[in-house]
Amino acid sequence: MYSLEQLLEICEKKIQEFKFDREPRLLYEPIEYTLAAGGKRLRPVALLMAANMFTDDLEKAFPAAMAVEVFHNFTLLHDDIMDKADYRRSRPTVHVKWNENIAILSGDAMLICAYRLLNQSPEARLPQLLKTFNEFAIGVCEGQQYDINFENAENVSMQEYIRMITMKTSVLIAGALKMGALIGNASSEICESLYRFGIDLGIAFQIQDDLLDTYGDSKSFGKTIGGDIMVGKKTFLFISTLEKASKEDAERLKKLMSGNLPIAKKLPEVCAIYDKYGIQEYTQQAINDYFDKAMSILDSLPLEKERKAPLHELSMMLLKRNK
Amino acid sequence: MYSLEQLLEICEKKIQEFKFDREPRLLYEPIEYTLAAGGKRLRPVALLMAANMFTDDLEKAFPAAMAVEVFHNFTLLHDDIMDKADYRRSRPTVHVKWNENIAILSGDAMLICAYRLLNQSPEARLPQLLKTFNEFAIGVCEGQQYDINFENAENVSMQEYIRMITMKTSVLIAGALKMGALIGNASSEICESLYRFGIDLGIAFQIQDDLLDTYGDSKSFGKTIGGDIMVGKKTFLFISTLEKASKEDAERLKKLMSGNLPIAKKLPEVCAIYDKYGIQEYTQQAINDYFDKAMSILDSLPLEKERKAPLHELSMMLLKRNK
Predict the structure, then answer these.
(1) How does the average pLDDT of chain A come out, rounded?
(2) How far apart are CA B15 and CA B35, in angstroms?
(3) pLDDT under 70 in chain B at which residues?
(4) SS3 A261
(5) Which of A193, B33, B120, B254 is 20 to 30 A from residue B113's alpha carbon, by CA?
(6) A103 to chain B: which residues are within 8 Å by CB?
């Protein structure tokens, strides 16, 4: 079985080899630029790990793994246009380096390339792979639309928030795992279990992302602390505080979040309200709960422990567990 | 066999039935709006006709036909953003009616919906259908990029121009025909012949579009006459004139085209140069040549005349022939 390190290396190598020997260059250079930018390559690794639980022949899973990574990067490319983001991974975004039209068109081409890669998968599995891929692909669009809707929404319930992060982040991870299992010819029950495992893991991962954005260590987090608070994003922390807080504190929090205080003032004032209601611990508990649910599903899969070990290791790494 | 009228009616009906019973509405309403806007539905009709040459069971071809129409409309949606077009079919474009982010995201969702529809095709044909679809899909992106490149290009050769319209317009028609034949289980030779027929027909159609934009009758053309000249578009007429004209006339034409004269002056001055070199007749001859090539391929298909009649009728209609 391949280890996490081996699969990360394989995925990175395969992505870097992605050169389009095609014209026009203005269509393909932004695609190469986007893929070369880096990234943790978690989704293709997850797919390969899921396949590897059932088969040692990973060659047949590589195209689908690449399809998932290309799809993921396509969503980032278009999201960056919509968010008017100037940088990604410390480099100018495509619409900044080239222009918006090129970003739209190259993104479209990337999505089509993902489907081309998918079509290199084992033929017998293609209808199911395509179905799974389409389901998470449309899910990501729906999640992004919900996320956009939330910016102008007066209130966002916890249920709506969880739905949004499920669609925007989790279904892709879950779908990648399911696709890997499909390629490994796993039973449909196991494919569905892996999907649900991925959903819970993805939700835990995204809530952790919310937590680290406010309470993390900027060196290990890789991003500036407080970004979400700066832009008034309705995160897990914000929504759960509104659920718990007194009417006055809730109003104060909303006012702070939508206000324009400089970060040096806004961050501690918001955190003071969060701390009053024990939100950091509450959020960590939610992360643990979803993580435990995920692990419980993984543990209950009828496979030998060794076959599940890499996926276990990946989960621990994602959720920053050291044991 | 279904007639052209019957197929146009079926396609229109099926497209109008396209309602997405899904949330979030801001993702799906623009898709329904785009599809309901109308359009000649030529591409799905072409697919169904091609299928009908080989099978009377068109039900199995409907999803692919819808996929092609949804794809075509996706390209229009994103093209309108890139072209900053305010209207399409006399209605505000999606980015005007809603906003640009919604137009980008709904477009992405439309493309995914096209693949979902495609996945409802006969399983045994799926790998080939997906391959054909992906090929024309990426071709349209490449064609659009070439078209964008031309705006700032000093010179565009006839060869480059033909390549651009082949990618931007023809490969979709050709691919639709090929997909129809694939679903009808036609031999691979016949599939390839129909593809080449579609390429030639599509080129004829696009050159005709160029001709009518300058020399057409605005009532039957459906658009304002002279639009291409107004924006200085490098059409077949422009490029062939530069090939034939004296150095002075070529310079004068380029200067006129990139200049800002009002349409009442610009149009007759440009047409005077076109007329000096017999460009209207030359263009009509090119249209006829491509059309004849297409008809020759259709005639040589080893099928009874009756089975080829609807496609023949469609071609005559597209190229405005009355016999």
Answers:
(1) 94
(2) 7
(3) 219-222, 321-323
(4) coil
(5) A193
(6) none
R_g (Cα) of chain B, nearest Å? 20
Residues of B in contact with A82 (CB under 8 A): 101, 104-105
Give the C-alpha separation, B165 to B249, whole Å: 26
In order of A72, A178, A186, A229, B320, the CA distances from A173 in angstroms are 10, 9, 17, 26, 52
Distance CA B25, CA A139 (A): 13
Question: What span, in angstroms and rounded, lies between the C-alpha atoms of A60 and A47?
Answer: 12
Q: Which residues of B touch A138 (CB under 8 A)?
A: 109, 112-113, 116
Of the candidates B301, B14, B320, the residue with the CA atom closest to the CA atom of residue B177: B301
> In whole angstroms, what is the distance from residue B87 CA to residue B165 CA?
22
Nearest to B104 among A82, A119, A146 (CB): A82
Q: What is residue A323's predicted lDDT score, i.e. its pLDDT?
A: 43
Q: Dmax over Cα atoms in chain A, in whole Å?
A: 61
pLDDT in tens, A11-34: 999 998 877 889 999 999 999 999
B132 Cβ partners below 8 Å, 6+ apart? B175, B178, B179, B182
Closest residue in chain B to residue A82, using alpha carbons only: B101
What CA–CA distances, in Å, run from B170 to A217, B14, B163, B205, B290? 55, 24, 10, 9, 12
B237-280 confidence digits (pLDDT tens):
999 999 999 999 999 999 999 999 998 999 999 999 999 999 99
Token look-up 């040692």 returns: A56
The pLDDT of A135-160, averaged and rounded, is: 95
Minimal Cα–Cα distance from A86 to chain B, Å? 16
Across residues A154-172, what is the average pLDDT? 96
Q: Which two tokens stand for residue B173?
A: 């028609």
Looking at the complex, report in whole angstroms how far the Cα of residue B22 sits from the nearest Cα belonging to chain A: 9
A95, A100, A138, A147: which to substitute to probe chain B, counting the most B Cβ within 10 Å?
A138
DSSP symbols for A134-197:
HHHHHHHHHHHHHHHHHHT-S---HHHHHHHHIIIIIHHHHHHHHHHHHHTT--HHHHHHHHHH
pLDDT for B221: 66
Which DSSP category does A39 fall into? -
pLDDT exceeds 90 at position A162: yes
CA-nearest residue to A146 within chain B is B24
Backbone angles phi, psi at B160, to 5 degrees: -65, -40
Q: Which residues of A touch B81 (CB under 8 A)?
A: 101, 104
Tokens 């979400």 sit on residue = A228
Between chains, do A78 and B23 touch, taking CB under 8 Å as contact?
Answer: no
Cα gap A92→A97, rounded to integer Å: 6
Secondary structure element (H or E) that encloses residue A127, with its range: helix A126-151
